[in-house]
Amino acid sequence: MSGAKQQLQAAWAICGKDLRAEFRTRYALSAIGLFALTTLTVVSFAVGPLFLEADLLSALLWVILFFAAMAGLSRTFVHEEEARTAPALRLAAPPVAVYLGKGLFNLVLLLLLEALIVPLFIAMMGLRVGNPGLFLLVLLLGDAGLAGVTTIVAAMVAQASARGALFTVLSFPLLLPLLIQCIEGARAALAGQSTATAAASLGVLVAYAVATGTASVMLFPAIWTEM
Amino acid sequence: MHRLVLQGIGKRYGRLRALQGVEAQVESGEVLVVAGRNGSGKSTLLRIIAGLTRPSSGTVLLYENGRILPPEERRCRIGLVAVDVALYGELSAWENLAFLARVRGRPLSPMEAQQLLASVGLAGREDDLVSTYSSGMRQRLKYACALLHQPPVLLLDEPSANLDAAGAQMVERILAQQRERGLVVLATNDPREVAWGDRVIRLGEESL
Amino acid sequence: MVWKRWADVGKWVLGGWMVAVLLGAFLLDARRLGTLGQGARIIFFHIPTAWVTVLALAVSSVYSIRYLVWRGQADDRHAVHSAGLGILFCLLATVTGSIFARITWGAFWNWDPRETTIFVLLLFYAAYFALRAAVSDEETRAALSAAYNVLGLVVVPFLVFVAPRLPGLAGLHPEPIVNVRGELDMDPWALLVFLAALAGFTGIYLWTFHLANRIGLAEQRLNVLEERDGRPVDR
Q1: Domain tally for chain C?
Q2: Interface residue C111 vs chain A (CB under 8 A)
Q3: Do A204 and C167 make contact, defined as CB atoms within 8 angstroms?
Q4: What is the largest CA-CA distance in chain A?
Q5: Which of C68, C130, C140 is facing A166, going by the closest CB pair?
Q6: Domain that holds residue C217
Q7: Does A8 touch chain B (CB under 8 A)?
Q8: Considering Cα of A33, then A217, then C139, then C72, what sign does the dihedral take?
Q9: Which residue among A10, A20, A21 sits closest to B103, beta carbon to beta carbon?
Q10: Do C162 and A170 touch (CB under 8 A)?
Q11: How many domains does chain A have?
Q12: Using the 8-state DSSP alphabet, how is residue C167 labeled?
């Protein structure tokens, strides 16, 4: 009964539902946004008049993005369990559609976060972005990997009891290779390297997103259904 | 024509045994009542039938015209109403219905949705957020959500919970309609509801 | 039960073997290990423990995959036991490596690519056990941790591939064994002790894994008995 087209439609519906609910309550957006703003302010204040190299700045940016993600990306699943709506969703939706739909939702959250934080970061740190195209590409590809992994980890955390720090604890080891590569990519973009030279870095980001995404799609039904 | 068969269903949570050796059969046109005290495992059994919980032992088989349905297809044939299965409070009644319908691959037109809501006594309240609903209204909406895909198998956990007398009548009407379409499994400890059953199994009274 | 016979006899052989390894490790002339001095003896412990870490984690992943496919409770037990041993050997590898780093380069930790990799592995398995501790239902716990284990497996190649790209430090790890030309470049006696240590530590892992599984199986049988009789068994 669930062809690929229907699964995608269901995923789209799930993403849409989450977005609609999110815009009404703005819970995750506030958590993520406020966290990121606070962190950014602290960093900017601490750094002050110091001149920082591109290396450190790119690392700082991704640290802020990572922890902001940790503040809000688990909500999509945790809220379903806490509000007791998860069983209805389990019964109504094909499992893969749930993963894709909520993964897409988390991706949108990340994009909104970056739309807010990245320009602010560039302005407050007085950055010169050597290769904006590459910078954007690294952000987008990094987001894909970030969304893919955090979504499946969120599904795991939602079924555990001591949820607080568990999401970060579980996500970090999986995301570290991605973060390292994103920091490296951002550094190259700030320094003005050409996109062609950075192709290897971009390749790793794509490979990471594809590998973890595929694995997640295959693993998701095992952790979502029939517990 | 549908037939639901429960074979040796058992469920353990660690050392605690919630269910043991449950056997039952129901066919289209029939109502199976699962009776027992609080904590006897009625809700657990319903969840196992729905495919939400994995049994520790035993099997659930759903036959459609003699063919056994795999779990993915079974999911599409089931509607569940339970007190601890909630609806999306941030969405309106209409949005809840539309969402669940789309996700099941059977989009609802606004007119169909209105008819459905009217049949559960919620006409005119479709645009209100469910968080503003009373518990009785939520229960009615749960029926609408469970029935929107016309499932041959309807699972009801405490059917009249939170419902007034008019609501209870609605339940009886729904049961009658469901008999024509398929079968019902109903969990309750209300003797009046137990009387609705063509078959009754009692939990929590087996000797170990 | 064939394993049991092997283990009961094997443990004596293993014990003797490891005594020989220890003697070799400390009695061997340190100059045979190159110019790194007495501290170089650590390779007889650091590299085997690092290798066993990887082995244990690979074995754990295999059992996790088996669990996800067949949902056999034994597979979940095996996965956990191997992961536990993995984390133990990982700690050993990290500590021995850190000691060597202090002696040779003056600092306990440098974020050298391999140090980073082993540290992240440590974090990953700590997270694995944190996940298991946070889930009360047996089957849910097994399924979630198995899935997490497999995710880790998918991510490890990226770790190995990406860690060397950390800006700043180039790799500090010396190459006393396989040099630039890719040849085995070690003194024959040192090589002998090294390979013996490698085999010995692997043997320790296999034996401990076997023991842990036997205990796990016995626990499981006791649980079944307790349930059947309805009263606790005196352990």
Answers
A1: 1
A2: no
A3: no
A4: 62
A5: C130
A6: 37-224
A7: no
A8: negative
A9: A10
A10: no
A11: 1
A12: S
Report ipTM (2 d.p.). Answer: 0.93
- Domain spans of chain B? 2-77+151-202
Query: SS3 letters for chain B?
Result: CEEEEEEEEEEEECCEEEEEEEEEEEECCCEEEEECCCCCCHHHHHHHHHCCCCCCEEEEEEEECCEECCHHHHHHCEEEECCCCCCCCCCEHHHHHHHHHHHCCCCCCHHHHHHHHHHCCCCCCCCCEHHHCCHHHHHHHHHHHHHCCCCCEEEEECCCCCCCHHHHHHHHHHHHHHHHHCEEEEEECCHHHHCCCCEEEECCCCCC
Task: Give the C-side interface with B, CB within 8 Å.
Answer: 136-139, 226-227, 230
The range of the structural domain enclosing residue A22 comes to 4-224
Cβ of B16 under 8 Å from any chain C Cβ? no
pTM of the model: 0.90
Q: pLDDT tens-digit profile of C85-98?
A: 999 999 999 998 88
Decide if C79 is inside a domain.
Answer: yes
pLDDT tens digits along B51-97: 998 888 899 999 999 899 988 889 999 999 999 899 999 999 999 99
Q: Give yes or no for A56 touching C (CB within 8 A).
A: no
Fold for the domain defined by B2-77+151-202: Rossmann fold (3.40.50)
Chains near C (3 or more Cβ pairs under 8 Å): A, B
Residue with tokens 């040849």: C183
